[in-house]
Amino acid sequence: MATAETLTPAKPASNLRNYILVTAAYWADTLTDGAIRMLVLLYFNQQGYSAIEVAMLFLFYEVFGIVTNLVGGFLAARLGLKATLFSGLGMQVIALGMLALAAPAWLTIPYVMAAQALSGIAKDLTKMSSKSAIKFVVAADAQSTLFQWVAVLTGSKNALKGVGFFVGGLLLYLLGFQNSLLVLAGLVLTALLATALLMKGDLGVSNKKAKFSHMFSNNRAVNILAAARVFLFASRDVWFVVGLPVFLYTVLGWTFWQVGGFLAVWIIGYGFVQASAPAILRRRYEARGGTPDGATATWLAFLLALFPAGIAAALQAGIEPTLVVVVGLIAFGIVFAMNSAVHSYLILAYTDSDKVAMNVGFYYMANACGRLAGTVLSGLLYQYAGLVGCLWTCVAFTLAAGLLSRLLPTANQGHVALAALGGDE
Hints:
79% of the residues lie in helices and 0% in strands. By secondary structure, it is mainly α.
């Protein structure tokens, strides 16, 4: 069967330089993305929007994330990662401008949904570019290094998204909604200009013969991992995106900056755990063959299910809610971060170098599907079943992720599975 040769490494030194620039630009966009989410969520909740209406503001953001990850991998294959990076940063500036410069009467649900759609496209284009690039700067036989680099990139990104949550809550408190968005637009524009001036050449080699049909993976391991990813991220967002912030603000009586600050600290800690996952899990996965495998993803998913179940049961038993939510969320974040880091390594381990952009795009399309389901259900369930309903749904999703992960290759199957990919892993 013919395969598309997409992005192949040409000049390793140049690729490493450009990868660093891509990562730095991605950090700026990630910081902004976290801030936008907190600004929109808190501002419109303050304006009297219900939990379902607030969730709808993020609907197109998640829907277009699915489309972007699918199409973005194809575009990166045809045009190169540099083009997708610059397009993403430029779209983020436009999305911020749409909200920052709009008359107050324009800030309706359809208008904000459109701006959030553009912001979601921007974020996923830059994410896909940076995640794909790492495949080209790590030797094919250095799988432990690949795990470490992926974990550091993903962890640092999430830490910065946490900073963005804090920045969003603080800016809303200090400057108001639209002035805050102007500040963020300036940050992204600066990143775009700096990257455009400093980047030399292209990141990888594009292939004009790549076909869109190649976006749909025929790799069993990639497909199973993508399905597990859907449920893993739905499990987080079904209570984290709308239910938890609204619960903290309306039930526990926290202020904007307290909500933003707490979620920021959680995301930052989550990012540090994710970056440290190779060291935390080393003894466990080395005993199974040297790198994480399907068994690692399986036991982490089943372990994760214990924590939302414990939080829900404690809240139903009437235990002090602030203590329950804070302690439970910290424990959930630690295990979720390690599980996510293992997934991020496995997608690169399972894919060929000549299809990395397309397979990463397909994988993050699944990621976006999980976020979309979790976001919509978060508002719907919180409206009718409260935070406890969101948490029990989280339990069901984590168990589904664990069951799917049982189908992934393990250390004993790894050589056969990787050989079947036809690549050089």
